[in-house]
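Researcher: Here's the sequence for the chain we discussed earlier.
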Amino acid sequence: MARNDSGVIAVLDEVTALVPVLRESGIEGEERRWIPDENIELLEKAGVFRLAVPRRFGGLGVPVADQAAVLNEIARADSATGWVSMIWVSSSWVPSLFPEQAQEEVYAAGAVRVSTGFTPSGTLTAGTAADTETADSETADSGSGSGVPSDYTLDGSWKWISGSRGADWAVLAALLTGPDGTPVPYAALVPFSALSVADDWYSSAGAGTGSSTVTAAGVTVPAHRVLPLADVLAGGDYAFVPYFMAQGAAAYIGMAKGAYERFLERLPGRGITYTSWTDQSQSPLTQIQVAVAANKIEAADALQERWLRRLQEHADAGTQPDLAERAAARGRAAYAVQLAKEAVDELFEAGGASVILRDEPLQRFHRDIRGLSLHALFTFTTNQEVHGRAILGLAPDTPFL
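Model: Thanks. This is the structure I predict for it:
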């Protein structure tokens, strides 16, 4: 993706101006278990959901580091809005891996919100010969060739689909049984209008992310919107998993920055109850705690910047990271997330008993970053194992690279 400084600067400036509004919406998002519609409208207007859309479709097509900077800023305001924005922006790039016809359908409006479910908990069934006979011309136009169905039928349910209550499209993994009887994972690109979204998202963390269960019941998916999951993970301009890890780490670091900012806002005039400290900022313990938190956030940012740069270098050169680099991206992203989480823990511990009140944003940052850090792709130990295996010359033992 080519650099488009003026576009991303305008988006970043608008998002920064929205920080107070987005932060104020945190309680409402938790109560309705979904971020306010106003947040989506404001971010849409700011151009956030055009960041990763190819420029030939009216998107901004900005480099991954610029996308990450915007997502970082949204998460600094509100963790749920930041998380959902991260999912939509990082996933909105995925349709660019599909055939041109699919891209034209998804990117018709120039901005798009895409949610994903990469656990293959659904099934794809190929259309019968009778089904495909009526669509021979479409199959030929798409370049699929004879013997390839013109459509598939998608069935199944996918849990934890963040942003499902406001997304336009979904990329859902499903198993397709091959000629030899072996099930192979594929990705199906489906409009949300063809899916049902359950009202089943009740959680103690990430409550506003609306990560509901999504179900497909006999949904017809044309062949141009079906790809082997391996092709999606291989990526295009970017390797998908390192790209997604980059976006995700940006959201976690943004949450830590929001917690740090809120801690400093609360500090003036606060003492430490049952001690002689009438000004908490004068306490050496508080000074140590805030410095440790600040440096962990700074370290996470520095770690992020290094592999964001490397990822963009590959994209600009038209090359792909090798397995060792992909494994390192997972290990380093998870390490950055761990540092961000530890920074928020430090600030929460220093916040005093009043930090647990529901109208206090710091406690929401704390609950959300701890809960969302359990996401399987960002789990600290799993990613260090993947990275460590690569360092030691062993096979990564996962296709998600």
